[in-house]
Amino acid sequence: MKQTTNSILMIRPVAFRMNEQTVVNNYYQKVLDGLLPATVNAKAQQEFDAFVEKLTAVGVDVTVVDDTLEPDTPDSIFPNNWISFHENGDVALYPMFAENRRHERREEILDLLEEKGFVIHNIIDYTSAEEDGFFLEGTGSLLLDRVNAKAYCALSPRADEELFIEFCEDFDYAPVIFEAFQTVDSERKLIYHTNVMMCLGETFAVICSDCIDDKKERKMVLDNLKENGKEIILITEVQMNNFAGNMLEVHGANDKRYLVMSAAAHQSLTPQQIEQLEKHTEILSSSLDTIEACGGGSARCMMAEIFLPRN
């Protein structure tokens, strides 16, 4: 089992904008006043293309698929929420909270990956849970420690506990369940996705433990990370609001490891945190200001890791 992969899937947006259906519980989204939708999308495309270029320049194998204008999928740039790919050839499809995000699931993407030589043995489909109002949004909701077979999940309207446990049973992961909060207008509200407040690398974990208000739960999460030999790098809630938890470690040419994040996340880190991280991995950052503001997601959300075997 590997924790990081060299292959990722990314979806290039064609009509990116702030999704009115997700803003109800994604407190990171903002309206960019005075910008026409076409301008927002053009800026998002520029950020996307520059990001892909940086990844491919260090030897990451990026499969880029263009989104389609119909149906309307303003959040298609975040594919890791609807699909995950596993080393045994399994693919999981996930139930999505926002109705317009459900259209992001496109079967032809699987065909395209098979054409590229990836092997898919089995599709595990959880999407029928949408009919009953239960959701689990892929590796936004689930943080997988693939090597140690543990899955971390901060419960929220987009991460249902029973579904999470079902996933863990299907994929042989031990569940680590907790609640994480952020302050919104001086109220503590559930964080919508686990991957906003923590990131798991091969040898380290970045986490905003201040978000886990229950002290027992906080200790339990930190103990699980320590037990697996992860160096813990703590971030503050202010840094988390700059997407410093929304990072992903990948490997490029010659198996060199890179921790991928946005420029805003990188800038929010202290010199000491950067030093801690650079003992483990090299930082690769790219400006994603428009995508972060309108989409309320960042670098990690834009990359669906492909662990599938290859022909």
From TrEMBL:
InterPro entries: Amdntrnsf_FN0238
Top-level lineage group: Bacteria
UniProt xrefs under NCBIfam families: citrull_CtlX
Name of the protein in its database record: Amidinotransferase
